Amino acid sequence: MAGVRVAGVGLTQFGRHPERTGRDLFAEAALAAREESGVPSDDIEELNFGNYMGVLAERQGHMAPLMAEAAGLDCPATRYEDACASAGMAVREAVRTVRSGESDVVLAGGLERMTNLDTADVTEGLATAADELFEIRQGMTFPGAYALMARAYFERYGGSREDLAHIAVKNHDNAFENEYAQFHRKITVEEALDAPMVADPLGLMDACPVTDGASALVLVSDEYAAEHGLDAPVSVTGTGQGGDNLALQDRRDMASTPAAEKAADEAFADADISPGDVDAAEVHDCFTIAEVLAIESLGLYERGEGIGAARRGETTADGDVPVNLSGGLKAKGHPVGATGGSQVVEMTRLLRGDHPNSDAVPDADVGVTHNAGGTVASAVVHVLEVDR
Amino acid sequence: MAGVRVAGVGLTQFGRHPERTGRDLFAEAALAAREESGVPSDDIEELNFGNYMGVLAERQGHMAPLMAEAAGLDCPATRYEDACASAGMAVREAVRTVRSGESDVVLAGGLERMTNLDTADVTEGLATAADELFEIRQGMTFPGAYALMARAYFERYGGSREDLAHIAVKNHDNAFENEYAQFHRKITVEEALDAPMVADPLGLMDACPVTDGASALVLVSDEYAAEHGLDAPVSVTGTGQGGDNLALQDRRDMASTPAAEKAADEAFADADISPGDVDAAEVHDCFTIAEVLAIESLGLYERGEGIGAARRGETTADGDVPVNLSGGLKAKGHPVGATGGSQVVEMTRLLRGDHPNSDAVPDADVGVTHNAGGTVASAVVHVLEVDR
Hints:
Two copies of one chain form a homodimer.
Chain A: E1 4-11, H1 22-37, E2 46-50, H2 54-57, H3 63-70, E3 77-81, H4 86-100, E4 105-112, H5 119-127, H6 142-157, H7 161-175, H8 189-194, E5 197-199, E6 202-203, E7 213-221, H9 222-227, E8 234-243, H10 258-271, E9 280-282, H11 288-297, H12 328-332, H13 339-352, E10 366-373, E11 378-386
Parallel strand pairs in A: 2-3, 2-4, 9-10
Antiparallel strand pairs in A: 1-7, 1-8, 4-7, 5-6, 8-11, 10-11
Helix pairs in contact in A: 1-3, 4-13, 7-11
């Protein structure tokens, strides 16, 4: 089985790009990844592309060959869609393809345009990631779904809106120096608590923003990297995927995310590491409560223990295991179909030491990324390790 | 590298199912495939699911975990989308996953609901598989796109509407006995030529219908099949994928489909066969001209020679290499995201000898399937072989 290295990464600025098309955004990220990698375009054998709602945002389906063309590639291209875990899946399948020897070089990433839709349309578009018959028709949207999960968690384990506010504060702090982040504004706990309520107990500062953006990575086999003398110190050493019932009502428990637990178990076994080995994590904090569920699903905390982690300063930049040093979905932004790729890009930069927040984890060997779809009916976890 | 066998196949009736949900249709196909395979659901490790326009037809994205649940599976699930080649891609990645040893058993297939949309909406939905900026906004829809390809072909190589009519007649003949087909009605060349013009030179009888339906296959490793004593005589011995520019205007030639040529070259090399070994083919005849381009891309005919194949009786049921014995997209129907899986299902039945049209190919060893997205910006080809 071939080892898999990250040879180059690329991102667009996350935020509002009303004047730019999806192909334009993805091309920027892909060309940046290609340039950093030094891999000639003819060597790229496949494009794995994540996107969620291009048909709604741009009336554009069948995006994969279009994005290959935009990225200057002449190779087969496939779109992966598992809602907000779409790019995580694109990366996962790229890792498996390189490992199997089917291809030596795969470009993986994703894209979402969202800000060109108005708030009602983007909310409705995102809601299609839940169960149309049993959730959407009843009026459920994602702030409401995650509010239900937060309430279930609070009832089972305790916790408060203030605990959640500390997560938002932390992630805004982390985004402050990240040049790609949507928000470069620190907030306070009071500010978070005073923000308008969206779906009790989640207020505006518990929710990630609506974001345009793209991410891309060039993944290569160890052998290819060695043969071509690439500077690619970061490897993807573990990958895992989990699934669950789509509708919350069909779950046994709303205060945990077993799909992510399965994905983490698989990825950790694959990399032959344990949660105690993790030095930094990028997790899917579409809402603050989601970060709590994520760090518990990764085994960084026991169930019920993750809620106070940010408040106690354990997951902050100066904590034991910093979480979302990128700023997370909350403050870096969440272009749905790009996010899973962006997490791997950010972790690569953190481990290589060229991220603005790398000084928070100077000796980090092992990083983990956690990407979730819907109310974690889909989950993808990756383990990254760096040569030291 | 593990060999890959088709352990079980399932289809719904293709046609109009206004009273049924997508999950209901996919469950029927998946449960049929599971039952035929004899594989216990706990052994199914992954679901690869193809769908194109569920967000438009049912306001349902993130379908993969929903379909896993509907099919009674507790495993990770991923949606593949390459327009009309979505299920072909789902099958291809399942084949590669089993080969690599990542999983021993994968369920692959697809679904589309279309008839609940009115004609204008379904046409607009399908058009999202073309280039939104440079084709759709100019008013192009797929009948127009394939009409341009037919005109380019006629101009380069000759050919007539009557040549195309023979393809429609053949495929209606083939569908007649296929219990899953949308149309059980034979037509004549005169009827095809007299049908209303849609986009000159393509008339109504040159176009496939709008269809609801689902397809599913249980794919297993040779080793799994042997260990469990499965009756699975058909193997997938070759897989290939090709890509091209999305917009017709960006192609060098509109009278050929290089993406499908690349996919065929790869699949044939993979299976170590040549076009002369092919005994039967299921190809993507969304329009009659597409069948011509398909059989040329597969190397069954030289460029410019495929146009007369049906008229000369070479691709009919009693011909040398019957094409679309299922009835093809034209007469069996074309539920977009299910079609690529359905082709592999039909070829499996043909090779096993339990298809109503198996008597047309009693000694067939090698079958080929050809699935295309858009104006063949995406293409997937599979080679199937049967133990004799």
